[in-house]
Amino acid sequence: MLTNRPYTVALIVPTGIGAAMGGYAGDALPIAKAVAASCDRLITHPNVMNGAQLYWSMPNALYVEGYALDKFAAGTWGLQPVRRNRIGIVFDRSISDELRVRHLQAADAARATLGLDLTDYVVTDLPLGVELRTASSGASWGTIQQPDSLLRAVDKLINVAGAEAIAVIARFPDDPGATILHDYRHGTGVDPLAGAEAVISHLIVRTFKVPCAHAPALSPLLIDPEISPRSAAEELGYTFLPCVLVGLSRAPQFITTSQLSAQGIWHDQVDAVIIPESACGGSGVISFARSLHTKIITVAENQTRMAVPPKMLGVRSITVNSYLEAIGVITVDQAGMSLDSFYPQIDRLKECQ
What we know:
The chain is built from 11 helices and 15 strands. By secondary structure, the chain is an alpha/beta fold.
């Protein structure tokens, strides 16, 4: 069915699962750029868009934190596009003075060169105590020892400083495991930080219903000339903050079903979802799959540490080998044509019994 509304695609690469594309520092950005150029509106999340000090602004892309994306897919929350957000920064108390200055200089640079709107910052009253974990599958996750301290800092930014979006900078362990870190830097492992980052942003978004993203604070690593191009963006300096600030600057606000808005974007407006074939177990994908008109497109070559294909869950999907093929599928769908027309053999019509 053709409508006059914008053709909308959700591009999802779950974080911390070792995705061959999208599992490193901004390496899914080329995919996002191409998908955004092939549709009217792209909905995606920080794991896809964040490239440490590198980023690429796309006017038709909506930067939506993972927990909020799940709520959107379930139809509980809608997305309200904005012209700009005032961004507040939370610093973990355990960050050294020198490393905090480096991040503040990055924030001031974003104000001076990109015109971003930032509030005064807040330092947590206790060290957050980030701990990193690895699941048996190889996926990364983590915890923080002082979640209440984080929530108090965010509350102050919102209610005193007037922040509309939150960037969190937490001190992460410098050596999450020599083998894990080595493999990740050389393009064969899982991002050891991603799972804990998701825990931090999920907590804030669930509690305050505002856009949020995280930038880890780490000491610079020793130079290694053999670094993989996919992880090289993280080798450029002292901070991963620039991409987070750019993403949050125009991240949509969240509206609930009790705040229905004619201008908001809701889950039933999503025409297609693109997801790695082995990573279909997330609640967002399962929610989108319940819609009769939303196409689930799974990409086989984007291998992950998960083993949850669509058939295991009874999800109807269109399986393609590559993101280039996925872009072809959404191009055909947007043009209002049947995919059957693009195969060499077409079955004859049968009488409906």
